[in-house]
Design brief:
Layout: H1 5-11, H2 13-102, E1 126-128, E2 142-144, H3 148-160, E3 166-169, H4 174-188, H5 190-197, H6 199-207, E4 210-214, H7 229-237, E5 243-245, E6 260-263, H8 266-275, H9 284-288
Helix pairs in contact: 4-5
The structure holds zinc ion.
Protein name: D-alanyl-D-alanine carboxypeptidase-like core domain-containing protein
InterPro entries: DD-CPase-like (IPR052179), VanY-like_core_dom (IPR003709), VanY/YodJ_core_dom (IPR058193), Zn_M74/Hedgehog-like (IPR009045)
GO molecular function, one term: peptidase activity
Length: about 300
């Protein structure tokens, strides 16, 4: 026999109630759980946000610190660079002074009737000049060995320009000079001899840095050298090889000697040429600075060697 639905409900009322209660309870629990989870999630999000803010702040602080450090480092580097630069400049100056001190000061000395070389002075080393450049080939001539490469280049360059140059005199010892002076005196008389072969000129020859030029045509008649093509060529080109005319025309201190050329180094010769100045017009202290670069150019640059 079948029970009606009403009867079933009535019969199972208690069970239904319990069942409904259980369903409700589980719903409430589920809802609570969800709310709790939501709340906890929000809390976590908030904590994370706070942590993120903190990290961002720390990062910003770090960036500021880094910039400060970099700026400080930069300052230190700038200071270091300027100290290094100053130090380098000082080292440079010391080197210049050392080179000046190590170079024979006589090489750039101005000579006069009251200041001349000691009779015992001799160049540190001498080289025999290639005889093909001599006026008198059987009378060997010598020159300061470190100046020979400069002179050789000058002679070769003149030759290439078809301006043949010859040398009539170079290094002269004190004794040789004395003999020569006596000869001049005998030939020209004491007054004239003192003028063109006296104390100034002899010192430059005794240094081993000075030569008297002539040409194959003029030979020993070098007193006419001023009119030669070779002289014009020297006026335009000798300075590039470090040679200058010690006693130019109309100079205030000595007779004109167009044949007499002294080596003063590439730097000073160029300076004198560019500024149209005479060696003997310069102050001795200003000249001495060039001792630092006196022999420069012998091993590098345009200088050729034999
Ligand atoms: Zn001379």
């Amino acid at each position: 026999m079948k029970e009606s639905f009403q009867q079933f409900i009535t019969k199972n009322k208690t069970r239904t109630l319990i069942l409904s209660g259980l369903v409700l309870l589980s719903l409430v629990y589920g809802l609570g759980q969800t709310i709790y989870q939501n709340l906890s999630l929000k809390k976590q999000v908030k904590t994370s946000e706070q942590t993120l803010q903190k990290v961002e702040q720390e990062l910003a602080d770090f960036k500021t610190d880094k910039e400060r450090l970099l700026s400080a480092l930069n300052k230190v580097q700038v200071q270091n660079n300027s100290v290094t630069q100053e130090l380098n400049e000082m080292v440079g100056i010391v080197e210049i002074f050392q080179r000046i001190a190590q170079t024979d000061p006589q090489l750039l000395q101005k000579y006069s009737k009251i200041y001349f070389l000691n009779e015992n002075y001799k160049p540190s080393a001498l080289t025999v000049i290639d005889t093909k450049y001599l006026v008198t080939k059987d009378k060997p001539l010598e020159i300061h060995d470190r100046i020979w490469p400069f002179l050789a280049n000058l002679l070769r360059e003149a030759e290439e320009a078809q301006v043949p140059l010859r040398i009539i005199s170079a290094y002269r010892s004190f004794d040789k000079q004395t003999t020569l002076k006596t000869t001049y005196r005998v030939t020209y008389g004491a007054g004239t001899a003192n003028k063109f072969s006296a104390d100034q000129g002899y010192s430059e020859h005794q240094l081993g840095t000075t030569v008297d030029f002539s040409t194959p045509t003029l030979g020993t008649n070098f007193d006419r050298f001023a009119k030669s093509e070779a002289y014009t060529w020297l006026l335009a080109n000798a300075y590039r090889h470090g040679f200058i005319l010690s006693y130019p025309k109309n100079n205030a201190y000595y007779v004109y000697e167009p044949w007499h050329w002294r080596f003063v180094g590439l730097d000073l010769a160029k300076q004198l040429h560019d500024e149209q100045k005479n060696f003997y017009d310069l102050d001795q202290r200003a000249i001495n600075v060039y001792l630092a670069t006196f022999f420069n150019g012998t091993t590098s640059g345009p200088i050729l060697t034999n």
